[in-house]
Amino acid sequence: MVETYDMLERLCTQCGPSGYERSVASQAKALLEPLMDEVWTDRLGNVIGVRRCGKPRAKKLLLDAHLDEIGLVVTGIKDGFLRFGTIGGVDPRMLPDRELTILTEPPMFGVVACLPPHVLSAEEREKAPPIQGFYADTGLSQEEAEKRIPIGTPIVFRASFFRLGERQVCGKAMDDRSCFVTLLRAAQLLKGKQLDVDLYIMGSVQEEVNSAGAITGTQALKPDYCVAVDVTHGRTPDSGQAQAFVMGGGPAVGIGPNMTRWMTQRLLDQASALEIPVQKEVMGGSSGTNAWKMQICNEGIATAVVSLPLKYMHTPVETLDLEDLEHTARLLAAFVEGLGEEGGVQ
Fold this sequence. Notes:
Blueprint: H1 4-12, H2 22-32, E1 38-41, E2 47-51, E3 59-66, E4 71-78, E5 81-87, E6 99-102, E7 108-112, H3 122-125, E8 136-137, H4 142-148, E9 154-157, E10 161-164, E11 168-171, H5 174-190, E12 197-204, H6 212-221, E13 225-233, E14 252-255, H7 261-274, E15 279-282, H8 291-294, E16 302-310, E17 318-321, H9 322-336
Parallel strand pairs: 3-12, 3-13, 13-16, 14-15
Antiparallel strand pairs: 1-2, 2-12, 4-5, 4-9, 5-8, 6-7, 6-9, 7-8, 10-11, 11-17, 14-16
């Protein structure tokens, strides 16, 4: 059995911004195959596995976590320096001095250029330039850069992966590959157990731009129920108490109009029965996850949201607590096991 830490490192160190997920999808597929009856990659690039319960007319449950990460894309070259736009929600404030991996063939490194503080005015030091004001330094001449880096080449933050303290892990692309690891871990916990639903696990693509993978995958699979598993904001000294969740306090269960009430209640009941720590995340409108669009696929799908607390979202140093990941996997496994048999399916 592949250990959780190893699965995290294997996925999070891959380069896969929205629309360019092939390498991480390949790793995700390899990790999923031993746990499912069948695994495939669909036309858009989603990795999908199914474990059939063997019962006639069984309901379908889909667990989803997205595989893509935010990134950049080359829009021009000036004096060997790259101009770039964004793929997904990139915050300009954290770009200066950032190390990059440029996804040429083979990949090459770059850094985001920035002026040292000595030459900035007081006003310039107080604000981040717009995306259009940044360049990536490749160390190449204009001629070399034009030859080696085509316009449209994607870029990601340079991979890092390391422990913080005894329980926390830090790296890029934890959003949302850490949650795909919770799905893998839940499948491990369910191995050998009888199910009453056909269980589908999907590593979806393009969530950071438009949820295209989740929409098309859900439309094709036609599940009866789905659970979107994504990250939420972990608490730090400077975060608002109401907007962030305790690291080590367990997963956050979404409550609101994007979530089907009986599914939310089942998650909370299972957590209580098994003494799994959970937190409650009230979402008055869009959950900001794939669930928002999965819920209205086909004729409408009963939907739940489970979130893993994560510090420093959309940065190269996203940080999670391994105990939260294990609690999330245990909760998902408990939700799946017995679903249907106990009359909870509606």
